[in-house]
Each structure stands twice: as C-alpha cells, then as structure tokens.
Amino acid sequence: MMKQGIHGSDNTSPLQSKTSPDKSETVPGGDPTHLPITVVAGTGSGSGSVTGHARGRNKLTLFPLIFLIFFEVAGGPYGAEPAVQAGGPLLALIGFLVFPFVWAVPESLVTAELSTAMPGNGGYVVWVNRAFGPFAGSLMGTWKYVCSAIGAAAFPALCSDYLTRVAPAVSRGGGRVATIVTFNVALTLLNYTGLSVVGWTAVALGLAALSPFLLMVGAALPKVRPRRWGATAGDKDWKLLLNTLFWNLNGWDSVSTMAGEVDRPGRTFPAALVSAVCMASLGYVLPLMAATGTIDAPPEAWGDGYFADAAGLIAGKWLKYWTEVGAVLSSIGLYSSSMSSAAYLLAGMADLGHLPSLFAARAPTFDTPWVSITVTGAIALGMSFLSFDSIVAVTNFLYSLGMLLEFAAFVWLRARRPDLPRPYRVPMGTAGVAAMCAVPSVFLMLVMAVAGWKVCVASAAFTGAGVVVYYVMAFGKARGCFKFGRAEGGQYEGC
Prior knowledge:
- This protein starts with 22 loop residues before the first strand and ends with a strand.
- The protein is mostly helical.
- A two-stranded antiparallel ribbon has the order 1-2. Strands 3-4 form a two-stranded antiparallel ribbon.
- The protein contains 15 helices and 4 strands.
- It has helices spanning 62-73, 81-117, 124-132, 134-152, 154-163, 173-192, 195-220, 238-249, 265-294, 306-315, 317-351, 370-383, 388-416, 430-449, 453-479, and strands at 23-26, 38-41, 483-485, 491-493.
- The longest helix is centred in the first third of the chain and has 37 residues, at 81-117.
C-alpha cells in the first residue's frame, strides 16, 4: 500500500500566494512558551528564515517541491487497490473523489499558511511550540517522527515484494535482506547530497512512476463501461476502506519540516501544495475509473498490486511489467521523501533546543544534517522487517494525534496572534478556519476509534517514550550533560 479546483474569495485561489509588506518579527527566546526565532517576510517573496541553513545551490524550488509533496502523500495510485477490495468500485471512487476535499484541502491550507509564516526546519513542531509551549512541541515531534521514520520503513519491503514478480530470488532469505539493505543505504546516501538533488530525483521518479497509468487510461477509454462503476462489495470492510483512504491521502504537512530549505517559501509553498493536491487526486481517480470501468473483476480480486494485473488485461503484458517497474520507482521516491522529512524534523527539533545540537550538525560539503539522516536511515532499516499492516495501523493513529494538535495550534495562533506576519493567509476568519478544521478532526477521531487495542497500546508506548525524551532532555540541559543549540545560531550548555 503506497503513500499519498480549489476556490477562494476575490478570484484568488486559497492556495495562491499572497504577499505582504516588508515586515519582521523577532520573538524573544527568553519566554519558554514562545519560539526563539526570527521570521522575516520580504515584499513579494514571502521569504523567511529561522536558522538560515539552506544555501542557494541546495534550496528547493517549485517543481522539485511539488514532487516531494507528491511522494510524501501518494507516489501514484499503487496501494489504492484495497479500497476497491473493501467497498467495491463505487465506494472507492466516491472515497477518492470526496476525501481530498474533506481532508487534503484543509491540511494543505493549514500547511501553506503556517509554513510561510514560520518557514524554518521543524515545521509543525515550530507551530505547536509557538502555540502551546515546548512540551507540546516536543511531543508533536515524537509523534510525527515515528510516523515518518517508521512509515518510511514500509517502502523497502514493498520494493522487494514488487521485485519478486520478476526476480523470485529476492522473495526470501538473504536475497530479500540484501535488497532491503541496498535500498536503504543507497537512498540514505542520496539524502546526504541535499534536498535539491533529492527533489529533482523525485521529479524523474514521479514522471516514470505515473507514465504506465497514463498509458493505461488511454488504452482503457474505448473499453470503459460506466455501469461497472456502480458495483459494491457484498461484504464491506469499512475499517480497511477508511484506513486505505487515510493512508493514501495524508502527509500534506510533512514537507513543512523542510521549510527552511525552500526558496521563497511564501510563494513556493502555496503553489506547490495546490499543484500536488491536483496531481495526487487525479493520480488516484483516473486509473481507478479506467481499471474498474474496463475489467469485470470482483472486489475480492483487488489486493495489493492488482493494478499491474489490470494494466496487463487492458493493454498487454508489456504494460503489466512497466507498471511493476513503476511501483518499484514509486517506492524509491516514497522512501526518499519520507526519510528527508523525518531527518529535517530531527534537525529542526535540535535547532529549537528539543534535542542536542549534534542532530543539527551539517556536513561541510553538502550542508545537510548528516547525523539526523544517519539516525533516520538506521531506524528505518531496523523497522523494514516488521509487518506492513502493523506499521500502517500504528502510524495512522499517531498521525491522527499529531494532526489534532496541529489543527488546534493553527486555530489558536489565528485567535491569539492575528498580528503574526503571514505571507499567505487562508481567506477566512477565525470562526471560518475553526469550522474548516472541525470536519477533518471528526474524521481523525473516527480513525482512532476504529483502531484495535494493540494499536492503542503501541501508540501509548510511543507517546510515553516522547514524554520520557522531553524530561530526559530537560534534565540534560539542567545538568549540562548535552550541548543544545538555539535557533538564532548560538549554543548553550544547560538551561
């Protein structure tokens, strides 16, 4: 299972960048409930800096950022098949048509506003820290880091699973281990080279991963029978349907952890988000319409990887193999983008003083947080051998907790800090954004309500670990055990 027309007032798209006059705001570092950051918004650019790490040659520009967001969320329709298995073509199509507006658009709008207002590495940790203080910020970092790092662990195993269709030797034993380790090490090294390289690699991988579906849709057009779209599964699995939709369309805020590496974030973020929302949504709906409208396959046939079989039935074995290759390339892009998000989250937490400054250490050649990348790669490798279903269930629960806190921070900052410079602003008042966040919040609580007791126990354990990390770090500051850094660039021993 893979990861994955908005209108505003005054003829302005809600995700279209808005500029503001030259403003700067310095937030004192002495107040523990506020971030020690400096936010600068320039005329027409919305550029800003918190840590100033990103150098010109390594900054993310619009096109690579679009594809990084695409891979943070979707990576193509690979993995959407269980939605058809759980509810049939009708419910799957309704889900992928409606869910982006219920979930993806509100999350993208929140990300666009807060990433441009506080464009530093750490993303949602910065926002929650600013709204509710360091404890909430640290806990948010734990939840989202677990989601990113452990979620990334699913993709090397998925890559191996797809490769077994053409190379059975990698399905078990030493061959499988070697494939997963090689996948992990190669993409960890890619992340050392910087987000500009990672971003343009994502562009190439995205175009290659989507190409077989463009061909499949074209080949299916003369064969589509719309009546087939109305079929439903006899024994519906609502839990599987819900988790499949959520897994394939969450993560829009993940790229915010790399905001300090983005060129002109005030303009780039909103434009990249609206482009990625459209690309991801169409990337699910069009292939599903083509395959379900062309093939009379029962819902139970739609297991993971069925898109490759569907492509073969529609156009021939050559497209089946091409789709399987695309799935491998999509896994590579998904893993690379998830690792980048998780690694820059650790670096951002170190910049904020939640973690020792070692995690913010930059490589001299590429100016990348090499310690955070190494740690994240090691964790993802260790988790790559776990059950995929277990990974999805736990990350969905923790992601829901984090998003509830993120929505609360967004509304709180709107109500309590209306003067905060916002190069992009969601065109609604405080009541409007509260209502906007309420709808996906209900969905988040539904996802948590259907989780099994094992998922709840595992999530509670990770949350407890996050609390322990916060107090261990506080103890280390008080005793001078670790060296911590401030966002202004200085370092301090202890508190």
